[in-house]
Write a structure and sequence with these properties.
The chain is an alpha+beta fold. It has 3 domains: 4-175, PAS domain (Beta-Lactamase, 2-Layer Sandwich); 235-318, Helix Hairpins; 326-481, Histidine kinase-like ATPase, C-terminal domain (Heat Shock Protein 90, 2-Layer Sandwich). It is built from 10 helices and 11 strands. The strands form 3 sheets. It has a 5-stranded mixed beta sheet with strand order 6-8-9-11-10, with helices on one face. A 4-stranded antiparallel beta sheet has the order 1-4-3-2. Helix 5 (169-220) packs parallel to helix 6, helix 8 (334-351) crosses helix 9 and helix 9 (373-389) packs antiparallel against helix 10.
């Protein structure tokens, strides 16, 4: 299996090589065309400038004529400057180089030139006679390919001669080859830099991915406290942060599961131990009187009821945690539900010899919500059980119901023990008890508020607990939507 790094490098290298090679070929073609055009223009410019130099030289003689030696010397000097071979064809007299044939100005003389074998082949001279400079490529007398151009030497408005410039084509090929060499070197340099950048980019991507892989392996091996410490300012850094968040959630979940298992075993072990002790006494202790036996049986019944409630809460809580709980669709009148629940809770508190009073305040039209009566009962009964348990003798627990947009706002207040601010963030944790002593003088398993939160949030509602501190009472706010609000993806 090919690694990501290899695939990235192969892809980058192919793109770079193909792209730069194509650009090099296209650029080379354009550079060659430009070099050829520039070469031709330079030759035509040189021959024109040289013709002007010869014209000035002619003007320095009184009779306007040059002898052969003086002209040849001048041509030799100009050949060094222009880098080519110069030939002067006077339109009168005799030429000094390279032959004695003379270019002409009229048709009779042109016919004589063509008969001499010059005018028909030397198109640049014919063009010069017409006042134009062109570039012609053809073999010279030695059979080598040469670029020719020519320009007239004008004195007082008439052509005194034709100056021809010839440069071997190897000169142009050398220029083009030099341009291609420069382009090739530039291609190699840019390719090397691009490849270096590709290697760096691949490494910058693969290295953090390898770190994430190693972190994932350590997490899979059970090292849940491990975190990625290097964050890159890019998408991979975002993945690393998401990985750390995931690891934190997994670690918290496992710690919560361990605590849940420990607390659940403790909550199960305690009543089972009590039941076993009482049943052994009933079976084997022959000294027990009837009153003690009845008390033991009552304790066993209470512990069995406690176990049944614990199992029921655990079953309901696991269903909501797993998203398997079916949400109710019954239309419930919150006013009637509240009145019924208050009546039940009041009767139950009297059975426990607790004289706590419950005040119910309802305003406006009865709000209707789609829910399960059982779920609503579990939520508000747990809240009131806590409020009554922790309220002083003769205290008052108030329940205010207010219809709001798309839902119902419930506020339950008590003037009981209150909650220390340190414990407020943990009130919804499973098996949490605000007193931290788990004393058995106050009944309960510590699952109530955790179950309440799961049910309320499953319907799309909100719940919060407020307290100003110990002995300052507690306020529970519950928002219940008119209809269940399904979470995305469910």
């Amino acid at each position: 299996m090919t690694s990501i790094r290899t695939r990235l490098l192969v892809a980058y290298v192919c793109i770079i090589l193909v792209g730069f090679a194509g650009l090099t070929v296209i650029s080379g073609g354009q550079i060659s065309s430009a070099a050829e055009a520039d070469f031709g223009e330079r030759l035509k410019t040189n021959v024109v400038l040289t013709a002007r130099g010869i014209r000035d030289l002619l003007a320095s003689y009184e009779d306007g004529a040059l002898n052969g030696n003086s002209l040849q010397t001048a041509l030799d000097q100009y050949e060094v400057e222009v880098g080519g071979e110069l030939a002067f064809y006077p339109t009168r007299g005799h030429s000094s180089h390279p032959s004695d044939e003379s270019p002409v100005r009229d048709s009779t003389e042109r016919d004589d030139l063509e008969h001499a074998g010059i005018g028909h082949e030397m198109r640049e001279i014919d063009a010069a006679m017409r006042g134009r400079s062109i570039l012609v490529e053809r073999p010279d007398k030695q059979g080598e390919t040469v670029y020719f151009t020519a320009a007239p030497i004008m004195v007082e408005g008439r052509a005194e001669g034709i100056l021809q410039l010839g440069v071997p084509s190897e000169r142009l090929q050398a220029i083009i080859a030099g341009r291609w060499l420069e382009l090739g070197l530039m291609f190699l340099l840019v390719t090397a830099l691009a490849l270096g950048a590709a290697f760096w980019l691949a490494r910058s991507i693969i290295q953090p991915l390898n770190e994430l892989r190693q972190s994932a392996l350590r997490l899979a091996e059970g090292e849940f406290s491990h975190r990625v410490h290097q964050f890159h300012p890019d998408e991979i850094g975002e993945v690393a942060r998401a990985f750390n968040d995931m690891a934190q959630q997994v670690e918290s979940m496992l710690e919560e599961q361990r605590a849940f298992a420990s607390n659940a075993s403790h909550e199960l072990r305690t009543p089972l131990t009590t039941i076993r002790l009482r049943t052994e006494a009933l079976r084997y202790d022959s000294t027990l009187n009837e009153a003690t036996a009845k008390a033991y049986i009552a304790e066993i019944d209470e512990e069995v009821t406690r176990l049944a409630n614990l199992v029921q809460d655990l079953t309901l809580l696991s269903g909501f945690d797993a998203g398997r709980a079916e949400l109710g669709q019954e239309q419930v009148d919150m006013h009637r539900f509240a009145q019924s629940l208050v009546h039940q809770v009041t009767a139950k508190s009297k059975d426990r010899d607790n004289s706590v009073q419950i005040s119910l305040t309802m305003s406006g039209e009865p709000p209707l919500v789609d829910a399960s009566i059982n779920h609503l009962t579990v939520v508000f009964r747990n809240i009131f059980d806590n409020a009554i348990k922790y309220s002083p003798e003769g205290g008052v627990v108030s329940w205010e119901i207010e219809k709001r947009e798309n839902g119902v706002w419930n506020t339950i207040r008590d003037a009981g023990r209150g909650i220390d601010p340190v414990h407020l963030p943990h009130v919804f944790e499973r098996f949490n008890r605000a007193d931290k002593a788990r004393s058995r003088d106050i009944p309960g398993t510590g699952l109530g508020l955790a179950l309440v939160k799961s049910i309320v949030e499953a319907y799309g509602g909100q719940i919060s607990v407020e307290s100003d501190g110990v002995s300052k009472g507690t306020i529970v706010n519950v928002y219940w939507p008119e209809r269940p609000v399904l979470k995305s993806g469910t």
